[in-house]
Automatic annotation (TrEMBL):
Lineage of producing organism: Bacteria, Pseudomonadati, Pseudomonadota, Alphaproteobacteria, Rhodobacterales
Organism of derivation: Ruegeria atlantica
Name of the protein this chain belongs to: EamA family transporter
Bilayer topology annotation: Multi-pass membrane protein
Residue span(s) of domain EamA: 145-274
Main location: membrane
Amino acid sequence: MRLFLLTALTMCAFAANSILNRLAIDSGASDPTGFAIVRVLAGAVVLAALVLARGGRLPLRNRRRIIGAGSLTLYMIGFSIAYLTLDAGLGALILFGVVQITMFSVGALTGATLTARQVAGAGVALAGLAYVLWPTGAVQVDLAGAALMAAAGIGWALYSIAGRSETNPLEGTAANFIVALPVTALAMLAGGSAWQMSGAGYLLAVLSGAVTSGLGYALWYRVLPQLAPSVAAVVQLSVPVIAILGGVAFLGEIAGVRLIIGATLVLGGIALAVLRRHRG
């Protein structure tokens, strides 16, 4: 039960990131470049302060930073730039679809056994997610944006896989954010976007970076060793649905029949993949 609650809390933190990002960008309080850089900076500062306050150390030169910080940078850059040209729902579908495929593939290559229930559950959950997020009307897909979001999905999948071997989740996450900061900042600023942020934009970016990203990612690294790669992949399909429900609760968005049906399929698929059948 404790693992379930911690995993659910982590998924809520990920969904809150989406809500904070949408709130900042859609309202004009922040541009994507400024939001991404301040988000990573805030996460690095808060996590480093927590590590040092606990008498810990920052393993910046550890070999794990190559995959940890590298994949985090790939995710941050791809995610932020892709949403300049992609519909929000389609972008989320590409992101989490690629995350799931990558984590399933790596799990299979490293000897993890996939059961029929896990494969079926993943399929049902992904179908439900597609039903909720697929744009209505004519679909215009920007190939560059789709490629960037796919790269972000690979980055996040690798970041999640790397977390399974992290010995200290808080120290490892702090080091990842610190190492990823300069690369992310240089890449985003090189894109030529103007820095336009209001006080509200800074506040939302700091909240996203320090709490829902920094602490949320540290919690994710804590629970990952206890989750099979396939389970970790499938449960993340709940994030867009939680984000949409959060939009209904906090942003005044409307929940239609399509959302209810899709959310039921996603949660049902996750339950099918994750819950074990008890034999009486």
